[in-house]
């Protein structure tokens, strides 16, 4: 079934928050999922994959140990692409100066791509990401893709290399609604449900639900 981009963003934000991400990172995850979905890429599917892979794990274990290293790695030997992507955006100038930044063992690498858009806009030059079988570039307004579906949907990339400036080849056309399977929507909804406060006797008395006087 198809959903509006607003619906996808709202569900993604609640799901990310339910999985234990901070409000700020949950907002970034939602914006990134919407951005990928706007190019008919499986952003919602991949976010659900990531949340299940890293459910309740300490963010510090999935973050780059040092942003000064030529190759970034995480203590848990797998890196959260949302944290890594946000760090990359903050290091846009460093990326431009070095020409490239590499990361090891990146979970669901496609989810790091939306953060490249912010870096590209800040630099005024396109930024590209490459991992085995895939290459994606963006200038912050357009997205270019080279690679097969299986490579784009990979759950773990041994190495991801970000480069700037980059060439733009193979433009994707944006969409206004995106397909999200019912199964994926349910997976995100399960995380989102954690953000709902459980009903209490007081909340029932104040009008949440049927209350204690159930006439059914």
Low-confidence stretches: 208-216
Largest sheet: 6 strands, mixed
The portion of residues forming beta strands comes to: 15-25%
Q: Trace the largest sheet across and list its strands.
A: 2-3-7-4-5-6
Calculate the mean pLDDT score and round it. 91
Number of helices: 9
Rounded Rg: 19 Å
SSE string: EHHHEHHEHEEEHEEHH
Query: How many strands appear in the DSSP assignment?
Result: 8
Estimate the global geometry from the Cα principal axes. globular
Q: How far apart lie the N and C ends? A: 35 Å
Estimate percent helicity: 40-55%
- State the domain count: 1
Alpha-beta content class: alpha+beta
Could you describe the 3D structure shown?
It is a single chain. The protein has 216 residues and is an alpha+beta fold. It has one domain. The chain is 41% helix and 18% strand. The longest helix is centred in the first third of the chain and has 15 residues, at 23-37. Mean pLDDT is 91; it is low at 208-216.
What are the SSEs and their pairings?
Elements: E1 2-4, H1 5-18, H2 23-37, H3 43-53, E2 71-72, H4 81-90, H5 92-98, E3 100-107, H6 113-123, E4 127-131, E5 134-138, E6 143-147, H7 149-152, E7 156-163, E8 177-179, H8 182-192, H9 201-205
Parallel strand pairs: 2-3
Antiparallel strand pairs: 1-8, 3-7, 4-5, 4-7, 5-6
Helix pairs in contact: 1-2, 1-3, 1-8, 2-3, 3-8, 4-6
